[in-house]
Amino acid sequence: MDMKENSIINPLPTDELLDEKERKWRITLPQSYKTFIKQNSGGIPLESQFLCNGHNYAIDRFLCILKITGESELEWYDIGATMSQLDERIIDDEDLVGVEILPIAVLFAGDFVCLDYRSNKDEPSVCVWSHEESGEFAPVTYQVANNFAEFLEMLGE
Q1: pLDDT at 18 over 80
Q2: Domain residues of the chain, as ranges?
């Protein structure tokens, strides 16, 4: 996948950082996503359009995975920072430990592309999380693809 020139957010995540995040979030990231994020963290895709639930969406930017230092404004695009902002709107169980819906890309108008672990912990589907429809402990999502690799194939069609 081609990204807009100079849009990747460095430093790129290492295997060690991805392992740390997986432990913290209590999930296993799909191998296709790990390969992608280690090359394209925070990138702006040149082919960003996809269809979901009868709507055409456009990715503004993929989120990145960083070790937060507070030294860069681009840290706002970190997955962990994004989850902190969305807080109870991306979970449906206030006692949840770990993550079930992981935002991975910012869409136009405040929605997010997410990995959805609610149905399958081993192979998450890809969904759109709707910010307008979601409430506290009531996330509203629409499935886009069965997995991350399938989602990447959809972009630009």
Answers
A1: yes
A2: 15-154
